[in-house]
Design a protein that fits this description.
Strand 1 (about 45-50), helix 3 and strand 2 form a beta-alpha-beta unit. It is built from 14 helices and nine strands. The protein has helices spanning about 1-30, 35-40, 55-70, 80-90, 105-110, 135-140, 145-150, 160, 180-190, 205-215, 225-230, 260-270, 290-300, 320-330; strands at about 45-50, 75-80, 95-100, 110-125, 170-175, 200-205, 220-225, 240, 280-285. It is an alpha/beta fold. The chain has two domains: about 45-120 and about 280-330, D-Maltodextrin-Binding Protein, domain 2 (3-Layer(aba) Sandwich); about 120-280, Periplasmic binding protein-like II (D-Maltodextrin-Binding Protein, domain 2). The longest helix has 29 residues, at about 1-30. It is elongated.
């Protein structure tokens, strides 16, 4: 009986030692050097971004996709126009500014660093109930005519636009009241040098410009590619149309000058047949060359992030343009 008791005690002792060993093994495995390296490499933090209405929709997509890859990264993305984006960036109020125009020398002198991340364009927009809509779609509008509407003010009626003096309906000209890259590009195309050269009633913001033209059959304005098309179906936003730009000035709206669906406008911008300006690059600006989380996000936009552009109504950079922007980050 004594021998049997000793045997059971021995078995219990062996079992206890085994369980103790199993209990201590798991924590050692999860706290090894490889796990610590993985944890330290994960991106985290918050990026604040403001600026151009033209780039705002795309930035929200990029922020969402980047957050899926890096759950510890948060974003604060706001619109407000290119002017606000630049002012906020220079002041250090945000990490990244969205700038839908070229960067000025005085801005680089204040420490602004920038790279191009996509391309889009500004298009003229008119209400579908315009009294000369049919004529406009047939003959288009020349660059010289836009100059006389928006810069010199020589043309004030829709009859003058289509060459019919019997039509005396006044043109209601709309521009942007906020500092906007779209307005600057439209001014340059129309023969001016800056947004301040544009005539017209000021409207604050891209959404308001679209809404204003939608409510005014005699109005004319301009908007970015991604805002004037319904991206869910590729059609123009109901209620507006793009009057063809008579690029070759032959008095006729040729097939390549008519943009009724997103694919037509997108292709014209991508292959360079649409004038530049008002086609333009969209840029991201930082105060000094980006580092850390800012740098990783911008590099991702220029590589994997390019795949999301076309569906959102933007033109991806060509491989050469992509390489140029990446090289600028590494200089």
């Amino acid at each position: 009986m004594q021998k049997q008791t000793i045997t059971w005690l021995s078995l219990l002792l062996v079992l206890a030692v085994s369980l103790t060993a199993c209990g201590t093994a798991a924590p050692e495995a999860t706290a090894g050097p490889e796990s610590e390296a993985l944890a330290s490499s994960e991106l985290s933090g918050t990026l604040s971004i403001s600026g151009a209405f033209a780039l705002y929709p795309m930035m929200t997509v990029w922020a969402d996709e980047f957050s899926k890859l890096h759950p510890n990264v948060q974003f604060d993305v706001q619109g407000g126009g290119a002017g606000k984006g630049m002012t906020d960036t220079i002041a250090g109020a945000v990490d990244i500014g969205m700038i839908s125009r070229s960067i000025k020398e005085e801005e680089t002198a204040q420490g602004i660093f920038w790279v191009s991340v996509t391309k889009d364009a500004v298009f003229p927009i008119i209400n579908v109930e315009n009294p000369v809509a049919e004529q406009l779609m047939a003959q288009g509008i020349t660059q010289e005519t836009y100059n006389k509407i928006y810069i010199t003010g020589e043309i004030t009626t829709w009859g003058e636009v289509v060459g019919d003096p019997a039509i005396t309906d006044k043109i209601n000209v709309f521009t942007r009241s906020d500092a906007a890259g779209a307005a600057e590009q439209w001014a340059k195309y129309s023969g001016g040098e800056a947004q301040e050269d544009l005539l017209g009633i000021g409207v604050n913001g891209e959404p308001s410009m679209l809404d204003t033209v939608l409510k005014d059959p005699l109005g004319i304005g301009f908007g970015n590619l991604n805002s004037i098309f319904d991206l869910s179906n590729g059609n123009l936003v109901p209620g507006i149309f793009i009057p063809p730009i008579d690029i070759n000035e032959n008095g006729t709206a040729d097939a390549g000058e008519v943009y009724k669906v997103k694919e037509d406008a997108f292709s014209a911008v991508a292959n360079g047949t649409y004038p530049s300006p008002p086609a333009r690059f969209e840029n991201l600006a930082t105060l000094g060359k980006p580092e850390g989380l800012e740098l990783e996000f911008v590099k991702w936009i220029l590589t994997d992030g390019q795949q999301y552009l076309e569906a959102a109504g933007y033109v991806p950079l060509t491989p050469e343009q992509q390489a140029e922007s990446l090289a600028k980050l590494e200089q």
